[in-house]
Amino acid sequence: YGVLDTSYQAITDASEKFSVLYPKESNKIGEKTLKYLPQCYNSIKEIFGKDQDINKFSIFFYYPEKTGESVFAKSDSIVVPIYDDMLDRIDQENTDQPCGTNLFPMGHEMTHVFDFETQNTPLLREGFANYISRRVNTFDTELICGENGYTRNNNDLIPYDIENDVYNTGECYFKRLEQNYGISEVNKLIQYLGFTRNKETNGDINFF
Question: Could you tell me the pTM of the whole model?
Fold first, then answer.
């Protein structure tokens, strides 16, 4: 991120592997995030395979200059804009879950970190991140994936549409793989994806 501005603070865990950078007046955000960061990282790394480790990992919080800026992941970090609704959730957490902070979807974004520059097809990346984060954490909403579509909390069936509904349709793609072939086979696929990170390729893996 370049030279750290004096209005920002950085804290690091005891291993010095994980760090959180944040505006000085937002120390509670930094401390809450660092509390969950190592266990969330390790839970998702375990799914991708132990050889997918990253030397240093950081999360950077900032106040955006305009509304509409979103969380995004890089190869070794997650960048998170701070909005008022995040501050409203600062005391909410699920202490029994690895990615249990409610400040931002840490498990989803952490999956993007491990999926960064792999040969995963772009249309499945968001659904893949949903699928992995749901394996790590428990969510209030339940996604039921059928042969021709999905339901959420027993509502009406919604047909699959990978072009316009990448989050839910993509998540169901991996859930259906798990239902049909077993979680061990899905894990082999995920670990292969991790192996393709930064490898020369003739194109993305096409699962369809």
Answer: 0.91
